[in-house]
Design a protein that fits this description.
Helix 2 (about 70-85) packs across helix 8 and helix 5 packs across helix 8 (about 160-170). The radius of gyration is 20 Å and the shape is elongated. The strands form two sheets. The chain has a three-stranded antiparallel β-sheet, with helices on one face. Strands 3-4 form a two-stranded antiparallel sheet. It has helices spanning about 25-30, 70-85, 85-90, 95-100, 105-115, 120-135, 150-155, 160-170, and strands spanning about 1-10, 15-20, 35-45, 45-55, 55-60. It is α+β, with helices and mostly antiparallel strands. The chain folds into two domains: about 1-60, no CATH class; about 75-170, no CATH class.
Length: about 170
């Protein structure tokens, strides 16, 4: 779900900003959108200071289950996990998301790949069942639903190299 979020510029660079609240009429009244903030802008290796609005509104892709408080506390985890595994993250609860989010980017992408495709064989079907079982456990024994050997074998079906491209694009995006 796309949610409008109010961000505050907090650093010396134009891209450095932190979310402050979901954009609602009540929340918008709390922020002065006319306040200016000084940032450095680079023009051909020459830095110049410029004044830009301190607060701005930006659309953000947020799972439907995420509350404002949960988003503000976990916005970076949500940003990356929702990009790597959008369909899978949408099915999680806040508790299972907190278990899923520390996984490596390739592992998150692999789980999304297994989750969103119809199992082609018994091996892929067993991996999907194992992932679902891991999610349903209140306190799983392992931090990752698949063994290293299973993840390696599943990697032959999944282009996990795309995970790095996704995270790099997010890092360098505005």
């Amino acid at each position: 779900m796309i949610q409008q979020v109010i961000f505050e510029r907090t650093g010396d660079l134009e891209k450095t900003a932190s979310p402050r609240a979901f954009h609602t009429p009540e929340n918008a009244a709390k922020f002065d959108f006319t306040t200016l903030h000084s940032v450095q802008v680079c023009y051909d290796d020459f830095y110049q200071w410029k004044q830009i609005p301190k607060y701005f509104i930006k659309p953000v892709n947020i799972p439907t289950w995420a509350t404002e408080k949960f988003y503000l506390q976990n916005h970076i985890k949500l940003k990356y996990s929702a990009a790597l595994a959008p369909a899978f993250v949408e099915t999680l609860s806040p508790d299972t998301f907190l278990r899923f989010s520390p996984l490596h980017e390739k592992d998150q992408y692999l789980i999304e790949y297994i989750y969103t495709r119809a199992p082609k064989n018994d091996f892929c079907a067993s991996l999907l069942a194992q992932i679902n079982q891991w999610l349903s456990e209140e306190r799983p024994k392992n931090k990752f639903p698949l063994s290293p050997a299973q993840a390696s074998a599943a990697g032959k079906y999944c282009p996990t190299w795309k995970a790095k491209k996704i995270t790099n694009a997010l890092y360098w995006a505005e």
